[in-house]
Amino acid sequence: MNRIIFEKDFSRHPLHYFTLLCVQVIGLWGLFWYAHQPRMQLAIIISMGVSYVVWGIIHHYDHRDLHIKIIAEYILIALLAVLIFGTLLINS
Amino acid sequence: MSVITHLFLPHHTNNQRAKILHPSSLLVVLSLVLVFQMAVGKISYRYPRILGYASVIQPVQILTLTNQQRQSQGLPALELDPQLSAAAARKAADMFARDYWSHVSPAGTQPWTFITAAGYSYRYAGENLARDFSDPDSVVQAWMNSPSHRENMLSNRYRDMGVAVADGNLGGRETTLVVQMFGTRLGQAPATAAVGSAFTVKAQEVLPTSAPVTSPFTLTKIFSVSLLVLFAAVLLLDVVIVNRRRLVRWTSKSFAHFIFLAVVALAAITLIRGQII
Questions:
Q1: CA–CA dist B62, B181 (Å, integer)
Q2: Chain A within 8 Å of B178 (Cβ-Cβ)?
């Protein structure tokens, strides 16, 4: 099991974080592009959440510290974001 | 203070990770979001004067703003046609009666059916729809930002316009529909570019209406953005403190969570109310 601090993690996997940032920024652009179209925006935010969980699994698998508890944390954060944005879309 | 530290900062009492970031706490927050949404729905349904939507949109304002956009592009102004406005009003009434949000009704009725039924024989015709907007500027701006709606608004094929603004219940929710119909009569030539043509309709006074205390969207937005910003701040603090203390943990990556939630927070902050098709 490989336990390292943020600095080392970031310097060891800059491409991982760059990929995450790119995917999320593309999602953000999609949310802007489909402004006033809640169905499309909901589909985009769900895709952003799913891609985030997938990113987490790949990142930790690469680190050799993948565990069900860690996957659960990514799923919960993704669920939280999707739920919060979804409730906003419902009321928009 | 110790409760705040326990909840929001890495500390020995929370196993060096803010308690709010623990899976059990995340489940509690998820439940709170659901309860909040249910409460907003119930209150806005039972007490629309406290938590409801208010829109101040006059058809003539839509016409004026549309013509302003056209004239800025060197296109002639459209004239308000009573028959097209009647067709737009019937379309809005049909959407409420049959409870649909589409250009084509569940029975397959096209927008052109309403135009013809109103006695307007068209050579060209078009339709823009909007709902849940609170003011005319937002409606016209949303249409202008959408290529297909913008094409309708700035088309030189149209000479007339009809607008209807109707309040009602759509999909179990009080809403305001805006139906904009464009047309050129049979036998009429399409509009040609003419710089500086005059407006055909004068602005009307907007009547004040009794607005609710706040809207469900505003309340949800404040709640959502606050929650996302709180989590993003806690995660950023977590990254900084853990890195400074050289703590070694076996958890998910706070910096990754921060990137994700910061992007979603940005999207939530910039989200504007209203739908168009």
A1: 11
A2: no
